[in-house]
Amino acid sequence: MLTKQSEEKVKAMPRIKSTLRRSKDGRYLVHQTTITDVKAVPYYETIIAKANES
Description:
By secondary structure, the chain is of the alpha+beta class. It has helices at residues 4-12, 41-53, and strands at residues 15-22, 29-36. The N and C termini lie far apart (45 Å).
């Protein structure tokens, strides 16, 4: 069982999905990793505003 604080940390972490498949011709193994990170729009607006100040 996670504490509320630990649960919040886990929710803030990016989601990582790993997929393995064979190429269409069967000669290669394709390993694809997808990282999904969700941030609120104000977070990015702040980053862009600070970058524009520089």
